[in-house]
Amino acid sequence: MSAVHSIDTSTEQELTDGFHLIIDALKLNGLNTIYGVPGIPITDFGRMAQAEGIRVLSFRHEQAAGYAASIAGYLTKKPGVCLTVSAPGFLNGLTALAHATTNCFPMILISGSSEREIVDLQQGDYEEMDQLAIAKPLCKAAYRVLHAQDIGIGLARAIRSAVSGRPGGVYLDLPAKLFGQVMNAEAGRKSLVKVIDAAPAQIPAPDSIKRALDVLKSAKKPLIILGKGAAYAQADEAVKALVETSGIPFLPMSMAKGLLPDTHPQCAGAARSTVLKDSDVVMLIGARLNWLLSHGKGKAWGDQPKKFIQIDIEPKEMDSNVEIVAPVVGDIGSCVAALLDGMGKNWQKASSDWIGAVTKKRDENVSKMAPKLMNNNSPMDYHGALGVLRTIIAERPDAMLVNEGANTLDLARGIVDMYKPRKRIDVGTWGIMGIGMGYCIAAAVETGKPVLAIEGDSAFGFSGMEVETICRYNLPVCIVVFNNDGIYRGTDVNPTGGPDVAPTVFVKGSRYDKMMEAFGGVGVNATSPDELKRAVNAAMDSGKPTLINAVIDPAAGSESGRIGNLNPQSVLSKKK
Known about the structure:
The protein contains 22 helices and 20 strands. By secondary structure, the protein is α/β, with parallel strands linked by helices.
């Protein structure tokens, strides 16, 4: 227990304060890393936390720190902790907190705040804002601690809220006065709470297991869809056993890739369109029927009638878009174990006709793609560059892959195979840009593995300054920026003929590699797949912070990647 000492008039009394109680509460619960940005009123707290053995990583922007904390939660199943200053800093971190909640990542955003009595009367305090009220609609839970003796219970509530049931983001508001509050050290020790069984198993109802298995037995063309919830659960062996015992083709969502290898004979990733259209029974494991799966209906799902089985810890997720005929509510580990138990030793595997049809389509698509991935064009296209990175990941299956962009994301997701769980981390449910550098830092810190980031030039710009953070902490991160001079493509022109470039165009011939060199990292300009391969392998071998400016043909890419259909179109023809 860290403490400060004060001399009473009659006797020496051991005291502690809010600073030390927060630190001790975090350490007691195994939260030993903080991602954040220093400033009033949390600068000294960061210094003290570091002195007490917590790893404190300071970023250049709170949003990147928040994204780091969010993915740390996903990778470890413990809440990632982000620390910010009040008002603007809190708002910067709030984007990442909302992202964590949407993606079901456990995270705690801890922000210093202005004094309640001034804020409540709106008297104009430094960075005055009612942060608790603003945070509440955007996260799973929000709490404020006003008294030092409540710090232990406040953090305990935040931890339990973040990881129990469907995980998510939690906001913890700590007014500036709280840090300096003093109390008896022994009473402080007793006020701390070590959270017991923060995310208890939620056992599915036996009837729901029987119903799901009965529906599965009736299937002629079954399909399993694995979502990132299945990867988060860390029930890897049970999920693998379920897939292989059932013999059913599986389709991994992007962050579930590698839960079973993408090269597994039952993987239908390369036959996605076929299995969505032709399947008759679909079992969702930790996946949601949101926009990423066309809401479970419409053209993508074809005319074949569908029955859905859904495994999810959140009962309200059932029937969110289509009828779920066999809902199984519980944690994924418990649900999959119960299904395996119910299947027994003599389960009738999926029909060879169905498996054969899926395999044939998958092999056809893989064969069609292969020549594109072998080209050595200069400037590069996406396929030539990604073909190289696909090979590097195959040779280094332990490496962490971070991926964001439009075309860069869409194409990498389909081309780069993953072999182990929780190695691919990307933009998630919202499909946002800006997660890249925060994810890189947390992935390196939390796993100790080398990190390869495949970044669109636009996506990289959201958090590019964090390359200094990567260099400062000397992290084994290799960033490949796919530079095609703009958003989607660098070929748009200003229709007025004026001096401003088109809204989607960047500076031609930018050299992002020089940014990394500026902070002592390694910068490389790669203009062909061969140069790219050499540079990435050298970076992964050395473990040095590296940024490779991969020169992509400005005409390569398509508008909005694969979700161009979401762009509203004007029906008015331009007036002459």
